Amino acid sequence: MTVGSGVTIIGPLSLELSLNEETIRGITIGDNAYLNAGTRLACRNSRISIGDDVQIGPRVSFETATHGIVFEPDLGRGLDHQEIHVGDKVWIGAGATILPGVTIHEAAVIAAGAVVAKDVPAYTLVGGVPARKIKDIDIASTAQRQGAIA
Question: Is Acyltransferase tagged as a keyword (predicted)?
Answer without folding.
Answer: yes
